[in-house]
Amino acid sequence: MRTLFTAEMSELADDLIAMGRHVETAINRANEALLTANVELAQSVIADDARLDDIEETVDERCVLLIAQQQPVGLDLRTIISALRISAALERMGDLAQHIAEAARRAYPDSAIPESHHAIFEGLAAAAAETATAVVGLLETRDLNAAAAIVSDDDKLDDLHSQAYQSLLDPAFNGTTQETLDIALMARFYERIGDHAVGISRRIVYLVTGDHKGDRARI
Amino acid sequence: MRTLFTAEMSELADDLIAMGRHVETAINRANEALLTANVELAQSVIADDARLDDIEETVDERCVLLIAQQQPVGLDLRTIISALRISAALERMGDLAQHIAEAARRAYPDSAIPESHHAIFEGLAAAAAETATAVVGLLETRDLNAAAAIVSDDDKLDDLHSQAYQSLLDPAFNGTTQETLDIALMARFYERIGDHAVGISRRIVYLVTGDHKGDRARI
Lengths: 219, 219
What we know:
The structure is a homodimer. By secondary structure, chain A is an all-alpha fold. The first copy, chain A, is built from six helices and no strands.
């Protein structure tokens, strides 16, 4: 019974890693679709999102069955409850990558991002890619250095989001309304990706260390 | 033991109702703050959001303890797992009301919404208020008519969000960039409030009827 439980907990962890890798791919592809106006990549992110939704459903069902059949307590129970939250956050990160890909697809053959904002979005894309890689690393190894990287990437994403937003209000900016909306919304999508990554990271840090550090795992 | 469990399940339900009422108040106040440029109301929404976060934490902790101590199965277990999802969705609805209040506060003494868009935002505010009331009703009574109202309000919110967005791209619109950004982001916040309400509604419909209707409870 115990061995079965251990195997099932391990499968649950593997499902989350699979979701994390899927999100990492989606973010990398959405980034490139956006920065290079690549409509095929944009399309692949949009088409593949359903797969992420399927894994999330599997994770949810596995969590309910694990609790019902094994009646875990203590850290095992908290790990399972955290898995529910983490899968929801990963699914949402995938949605945000999808929204970015949709904007890239809509603008095609043009870029959704005017030249003036290319550098900011390269920064957003790089930080989001980094955070996705760090989330996968954290899920795989529980190495807390990855948690620190996630917080640092989130700071970068917040700063760049704020820069992007402020740049639109600068009288020197003379983009179209569509460009204004794309920049504002996509910068926000990147910023939200960072928030979800931080939420996942806090959950895992809590499981590993028992330390809430005064903040709730807000995911 | 069973009586204690029943009492604890009832307290869990009460916590969710309390969260729902809190969200309803936050949405109503954010609406009025936005539509009438009332900075005191905006301030109260922002200040009160921490209370919602506290109740969410209580709900989460209660769910973990209920599972650990009572080892529920079947519908009881699914009800508790759903409570975790519902509390997260309610907390997020509160955040969105807070974001709307923040925009109202920032624009004060002006209105964040230009006269040209007042009617659309009256519609968004009314649909969001309705959906919050329906969510409370659904949590209190499990009356499935409330679920139908939530879906109908979500359709209204989606339509009005889309109208607001399209109106910004109309060459006839000559608002400032700040107005453009406020309209786009706030219409999106209202639209997201509707999405979270639908997610809550699907969870409860599933608990009451066992019917997934082919869609996942995506919250």
